[in-house]
Amino acid sequence: MTATIAQAQLDTKAPAVSLLALCPHCDLVQRLPDLQSGEEARCSRCGHHLDARHPEPVVRPVLYAGSALFMLLLANLFPFVSMFAAGNSNEMNFFDTSSVLFTEHHQWLAILIWLFIQAVPAACMFAILYLKLGMVYALPARTWVARVLYMLKPWSMVDIFLMGLIISFVKLVADADISLGPSFWAFCLFCLLHLRAFQVIDRRELWSKIAPCPIPQVAAQPGKSGLAQNLKLCQVCTALVPITQTQCSRCHTKVRLRQRASLQNTIALLIAATLLYIPANLLPIMRTVSFGETIDSTIISGLVLMWQDGAYPVAIIILIASVIVPVAKILIMFWLCYLTRLPVSQRQRHSTQIYRLVDWVGRWSMVDVLVVAIMAALVRFDLLMSVYPGVGALVFAAVVILTMLAALSFDPRLLWDPLTEQHEGVGFDAATER
After folding, report:
1. pLDDT in the model for residue 434
2. Is residue 217 in a domain?
């Protein structure tokens, strides 16, 4: 069935509490419509995804996650990519992307790459299998596994690694012959199945199968904010929790009215990312050794070289991912923090949508670091030519991680709290979280 989008309803009839949803981005209480298979519901005020119904909610995620894990196993068993240049050849396995970095004494970068493209994606697929099978066999510890799944989800970067592979091939195809092994095609299937497995599960529906939604002791009315009704949202399991209650009765997570020190943490992380972004562009991100000559490349010099070589699409992608996106994300996040201090009349209507966009696109800046890891594993021809990561790769990876953490620490509900104060007479004190 074709998926359709339904707006959450704001009528004030007394609905069942289990059908109420509190938007995590604008704090509006809404009544969820009766969704059919293939439909989803979005917040009527900010457009945030609230709920969905997928056909065959157990079988399809299990098949996608199980098939993805099998493809990941195949991706590690067979040759991934082979490169032929000037009578020399080198074969790269999927695991070499991180193992080569480790042997070259770039342990921290190797661990990050391994986590982003192997450990975290595999853990997410195992978690989906466990949770969905747990609906049938009542497996223990499902609450803990569900919490871990959505904590790890933003750090799975197999789609970004696939983009890095394409960029690396475009860089090398002019000077060498590239042969794709069976593991490469297995990894492509793994990427598709991994993304599809996440698409066919929904957090609210998943938690409803793990444990029933607790009924708060405070009556909730659609069309008003949770803050005005002494309600707060459990960010883990989406349950409505009274303000006086410190712990969610369903997932046993500590629940706060707003994220603690959200603005302070976000600004601190952004300042750290800004300071690191300067050396990330000045230090070499990649070192090429050819016939005994060493050439250091920074992000900017690599862009210029690709542009001069006529690789315009690749140069544009790297420019967007490594220069424009990090700078834009830092500036926009600073701007969103500043907006929380302005009156409602001076705020932009679509600030929440802008936040969601920068939160999603920021992780794609990691593509340049993954390209360096791929080149280091693939271009290994001893004295003829070899590629090594520079210290700038680790520094730039730290910039991307810091901006991702900044987006995660920012509470978008702060953008809507003055609206609640203006229309409903309820305010929020960030210092006391009340």
Report:
1. 43
2. yes
Q: Give the per-residue pLDDT at 378.
A: 85
Q: Locate tokens 């991994």: which residue?
A: 194
Hey, what are 291's tokens? Answer: 């016939």
- How many CB atoms lie under 10 A from the CB of residue 103? 10
Which of helix, strand or coil describes residue 24?
A: coil
User: Residue 144: what are its φ and ψ, rounded to 5°?
Assistant: -65, -40
Residues of the chain falling short of pLDDT 50 = 1-2, 12-17, 420-434
The CA distances from residue 281 to 33, 107, 322, 391, in Å, are 50, 21, 9, 11
- Domain tally, the chain: 2
**Other beta carbons less than 10 A from residue 338's beta carbon:** 11
DSSP letter at 213 equals P
Which of 204, 232, 250 finishes a domain?
250
Give the residue ranges of DSSP H helices in 138-229. Answer: 142-152, 158-172, 182-199, 203-210
Q: What is the torsional sign of CA 113, 117, 120, 122?
A: negative
Residue 301 CB neighbour total at 10 angstroms: 15
How does 171-186 read in b/e, with b if 16+ C-beta sit within 10 Å?
A: bbeeebebeebebbeb
**pTM higher than 0.85, yes or no?**
yes
CB-based contacts of 263, cutoff 8 Å, min separation 6: 337, 340, 410, 414, 430
The reply to whether 243 and 277 lie within a common domain is no
What is the pLDDT at residue 4? 59
Amino acid type, 119: A
Domain containing 28 equals 4-53+212-250
Task: Name the nearest CA neighbour of 33 among 44, 25, 24.
Answer: 44
Tokens of 371: 């390209």
CA distance linking residue 429 with residue 434, whole number of Å:
6
What residues form DSSP beta bridges with 20?
A: 31
Residue 8 is predicted with a pLDDT of: 65
Q: What is the pLDDT of residue 2?
A: 42
Per-residue tokens: 33: 């419509």
pLDDT at residue 353, as a whole number: 82
